[in-house]
Amino acid sequence: MTTKPTIVLVHGAFADSSSWNGVIARLRAEGYSVLAAANPLRGLDADAAYVASVLDTIEGPIVLAGHSYGGSVITVAAHEMASVKALVYIAAFIPAEGENALELTDKFAGSTLAPTTVSRPLPGDTAGTELYIRQNEFPAQFAADVPAHVADNMAITQRPVSLAALQQSATAAAWRSIPAYSLVTTDDKNIPLESQRFMSARAAAHTVEIPASHAVSVSNPTAVADLILLAAQK
């Protein structure tokens, strides 16, 4: 009997693990064990190391999915990890070695994220800044196809990302040796459509395109779950 993989979900910037709730419900209904990792959003190397430590606690095969900046994290975290059988990118960055999220965003025109963000200094002795999307601009920028009351709550509960995390380059690209799947969101205002297409093609990912905002795991959890299930059943 074939063992079903555990599905691990990694959220991106300006979101948290609750953004996967609709996806989780569908995956569990299909009999899969699911874990939504809390991405620290502090730095790519540290975030990837944390996710890798979570993966080390799981017995058996794993399907690893990442949304947005979470795609960068899973790309590094899964490097040389034999238990990871597939990578699923949801409106996500798919960096090669030496690339970071900001340069991939700017590779093609179309992102309107930068003008909607505000930076705040990190507290204590830690140098640097973290970024938020202004609450009043969050729905249109991040979640235009999400019900207004849900998008408003997402704006309030958003997790900030350190600027350093978006600037830090990937040290590995697990998609070079692990099968990749990509859900491309054609109405995305964070990661330009052409950037998503470029990265997906380069990774030779099985790619599905749908008209959706960046918050596709909230607005269309069925499409997201369907792609993850496809990866899990291969």
UniProtKB/TrEMBL annotation:
Q: What transmembrane ranges does the database entry give?
A: none
Start and end of every AB hydrolase-1 domain?
Answer: 7-226
Q: Keyword Acyltransferase: yes or no?
A: no
Name any one Pfam family assigned in the record. Answer: Abhydrolase_6
Coiled coil (UniProt feature): none
Q: Which InterPro entries match?
A: AB_hydrolase_1 (IPR000073), AB_hydrolase_fold (IPR029058), Sec-Metab_Biosynth_Hydrolase (IPR052897)
Q: Which GO molecular function terms does the record list?
A: hydrolase activity
Q: Which Gene3D superfamilies match?
A: alpha/beta hydrolase (3.40.50.1820)
Hydrolase keyword on record? yes
Q: Which UniProt keywords apply?
A: Hydrolase
SUPFAM superfamilies in alphabetical order: alpha/beta-Hydrolases
List the protein's name. Answer: Alpha/beta fold hydrolase
